[in-house]
Amino acid sequence: MGTATTASHDVGHRPRRPFDVQRVREDFPILKEEIHGKPLVYLDNAATTQKPRQVIEAEQQFYLHDNSNIHRGVHELSERATQAYEDGREKVRRFLNARESREIIFVRGTTEAINLVAQTFGRERVGAGDEIVISAMEHHSNIVPWQILCQEKGARLRVAPINDRGELIWEEFLKLLGARTRLVAVTHVSNVLGTVNPVKAIVEAAHRLDIPVLLDGAQAAPHQPVDVQALDCDFYAFSGHKIYGPTGVGVLYGKANLLEAMPPYQGGGDMISSVTFEKTTYNTLPYKFEAGTPNVAGVVGLGAAIDYVCEIGLEWIAAYEQELLQDAIRKLEKVPGLTMIGAAREKAAVISFVLEGLHPHDVGTVLDQEGVAVRTGHHCAQPLMDRFQVPATTRASFALYNTHQEVDALVAGLHKVREVLG
């Protein structure tokens, strides 16, 4: 990898020398692409990240040399594939600092992880008149599964409000916690606002009332260190494709005692211990929740992606992305008619904005002609759009391979939008 120097994964560690973004960029082949004859400026990282050569090659090597179904096979390829898959699980365990590898469940992504908890833990724990607490900044994947569960069980979904800066209103959140609260499910980092929620304080407040907490870490895990033991959260979910890994693979972390008590999510091969027509007994953790042939190559790729970000250092990545964020905010503030949505004091490198008189889709279309890739729309967070009284926004989201020159390209592109659209 281009950046050979390693950094500690301990929370709070800071970089000791400048982040060499040009060396990092050499690892990402797609960044050499041209779009409409212009260099690609990829600022859609909150939707999905690009993949380093190390991840692409790891998945390719698996298919070239080790491809086989896993577990129970006695031949060499099956043993190699099984080892690679379980090595991936151990990498995730270390990455999250989970206590045991059996607390790591492989899923398709954050969405499936949340649905798994809703349909197992939720169905067991939630009844008529009970409540689930979320926040007003949630992605649809952390809203809809709970709505389905509440409708089925006769329970109530409570929504903690946010202020005009896009921050959780702490006093109002605390008021929602009570004897009927069965779960708190909140995002670690907002995919629209970039708001970093006070998740440790949220967990502590909920646990004082014996309320378990699920954290949606899709936008946090790629950008900052996560220690599930230090957070003491009960569940944590993230997606491989947002952390420079493959699509179609993700992680649910759960405390072992909770996972043990939860019924299976799906039935099929590998999640069983024994099957007769009269009765089935289920496999141990984590396999109880991994029915059927998993995305083995995806797990191998995810493991390579975790190796990649850990070799660079999450602290280095976080600090560099904050530099980009502050640079972008300063420059975007000078663009006529531009209003940024969300100004949380704790904010990740995501900026959503509107340009006066222009629809975000038109803004995104002109930017694309300039080679600048951004996301436009409601970002799977329609209730949040309603909160800020906008139908949609343009969103620029940054990653470890973006540069200050690309910030300038975004700003120049927005001036071009004004020139073209008026």
What does this structure look like?
By secondary structure, the protein is an alpha/beta fold. It has two domains: 21-51 and 313-421, Aspartate Aminotransferase, domain 1 (Alpha-Beta Complex); 57-310, Type I PLP-dependent aspartate aminotransferase-like (Major domain) (Aspartate Aminotransferase, domain 2), CATH 3.40.640.10. Helix content is 38%, strand content 16%. It has 14 helices and 17 strands. The protein has helices at residues 21-25, 53-66, 76-96, 110-125, 144-153, 170-176, 199-207, 228-231, 256-261, 296-312, 314-332, 360-369, 382-387, 404-421; strands at residues 34-35, 38-39, 41-42, 104-107, 131-135, 156-160, 181-187, 213-216, 235-239, 250-254, 272-275, 280-282, 338-341, 350-355, 372-373, 375-377, 393-397. The protein has a seven-stranded mixed sheet, sandwiched between helices. The protein has a four-stranded antiparallel sheet with strand order 13-14-17-16, covered by helices on one side. Strands 1-2 form a two-stranded antiparallel sheet. Strand 11 and strand 12 form a beta hairpin. Helix 11 runs parallel beside helix 14. The longest helix is centred in the N-terminal third of the chain and has 21 residues, at 76-96. The chain starts with 20 loop residues before the first helix and ends with a helix.
